[in-house]
Design brief:
Helices cover 38% and strands 14% of the residues.
Length: 270
């Protein structure tokens, strides 16, 4: 699709049921993001995503959408501390998690690790620009690449990651000019989130798209209002239970079968 100039759509997904419906909708890529820490587990930060749960959720999404490209998001500290451990963990996303590729937040310093992952046969998507796993260093989530120096560094990071072996790139929360520069300097498909419209693909958090978050980011325009619909459905259920009018059909007792006794016939007279 990237070669043909056709934009492809990506969304996050964290369970098999949602993945099944998104595959039916024609979404091309499903990202099992570490945003599950916030959206599913109720944490305030993405860095609280446990690796075993990330693997389980990724496998669930692939089972729900077997014909869709599924990308597993490597959680904080699953690849930063030790290269050997990082390669093993990335491989687990392909085997246990059933993922088609793995995403890591990276800059040019991760190029040697990515080269080793690629050598092992692991397809990698390099995430540049704003990196939520490093939000603590800057005091919280925010944009990136808004000065010429920052913009140039992000482009350099993207180039280094592609040269190291990344088969995809993702850029988050940067001005469109930075995206344009990455597109000119690299050849692999580029996915954007809050990075303008020029990218080959676009990704959003499913809950932001569907109106399930109270304060979505500025770049996320809702396509539905599922939050209020869920609330109304819950309120309707409370009312029906209170009124003892839950609807549906009740089960019916089976009628007991009456046993019949066959009387023996008298022997014929001779």
């Amino acid at each position: 699709m990237a070669r043909e100039g056709r934009p492809f759509a990506c969304l996050t997904a964290y369970d098999a049921t949602t993945a099944r419906w998104l595959e039916r909708a024609g979404v091309h890529v499903l990202l099992v993001g570490d945003t599950a820490a916030e959206m599913i587990l109720g944490f305030q930060r993405t860095i609280d995503m446990p690796l075993p749960i990330a693997l389980a959720l990724t496998a669930a999404v692939k089972r729900g959408a077997p014909d869709t490209l599924v990308m597993g998001d490597m959680p904080f500290m699953s690849y930063q501390a030790d290269e050997s451990e990082a390669i093993v963990n990335a491989g687990r996303f392909l085997t246990e998690g059933l993922a088609d590729c793995v995403k890591i937040e990276a800059d040019a310093s991760f190029a040697p690790l990515i080269a080793k992952m690629a050598r092992a046969g692991i397809p990698i998507c390099g995430h540049v620009g704003s990196k939520p796993q490093r939000a603590a260093l800057s005091g919280g989530y925010g944009s990136a690449g808004r000065t010429p120096k920052e913009a140039a560094q992000i482009v350099d990071d993207a180039v280094a990651l592609e040269k190291a072996g990344c088969v995809l790139l993702l850029v988050e929360a940067v001005p469109p000019e930075v995206t344009d520069s990455i597109m000119k300097a690299t050849t692999v498909p580029l996915i954007g989130i809050g990075a303008g419209t020029a990218c080959h693909g676009q990704v959003l958090v499913f809950q932001d798209l569907c109106g399930l978050t109270d304060e979505p980011p500025r770049f996320a325009q809702r396509s539905a209002d599922l939050g209020n619909q869920i609330q109304r459905a819950g309120e309707d259920w409370v009312r029906r239970v209170t009124e003892r009018n839950i609807g549906g059909e009740s089960y019916v007792m089976q009628q007991p079968q009456v046993a019949t006794t066959v009387k023996p016939q008298p022997a014929p007279k001779t």
